[in-house]
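User: Sequence recovery, please. Input:
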């Protein structure tokens, strides 16, 4: 059975922050994604400490994983995002809006942390998708 995914309409604030208050799924296959981090881009270049480059690469790597599972970023229904500096929050919201330009945003939490597993990491994205 193919998944049916419905995004609960968000408030003006929720839409401006590029997240849905809830995502309802019926049927399909649930994919629990491990936290995605990186200090190299898709071409292997060092992007240590570079927020935007790491965020874009994390989204690309998550999409690659979801394609392997029969889906894409469009199937992401929930995400927990960890950043090491709260000043990256607005930049992340803009990047997320780019990746979900149809307005079907995943439910989301954005959390500031003090450290990651390796030096140079500034963001980690963990998610749940339904295909």
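Assistant: Recovered sequence (131 residues):
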């Amino acid at each position: 059975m193919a998944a049916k995914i419905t995004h609960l309409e968000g408030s003006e604030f929720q839409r401006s922050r590029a997240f849905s208050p809830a995502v309802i799924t019926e049927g399909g296959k649930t994919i629990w994604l491990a936290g995605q981090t990186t200090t190299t881009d898709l071409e292997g270049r060092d992007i240590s400490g570079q927020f935007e480059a790491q965020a874009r690469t994390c989204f690309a790597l998550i999409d690659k994983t979801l394609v392997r599972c029969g889906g894409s970023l469009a199937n992401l229904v929930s995400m927990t995002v960890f950043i090491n500096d709260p000043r990256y929050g607005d930049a992340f919201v803009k990047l997320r809006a780019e990746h979900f330009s149809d307005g079907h945003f995943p439910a989301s939490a954005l959390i500031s942390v003090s450290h990651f597993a390796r030096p140079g990491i500034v963001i980690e994205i963990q998610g749940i998708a339904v295909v």
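The first strand starts at residue 4 and ends at 7.
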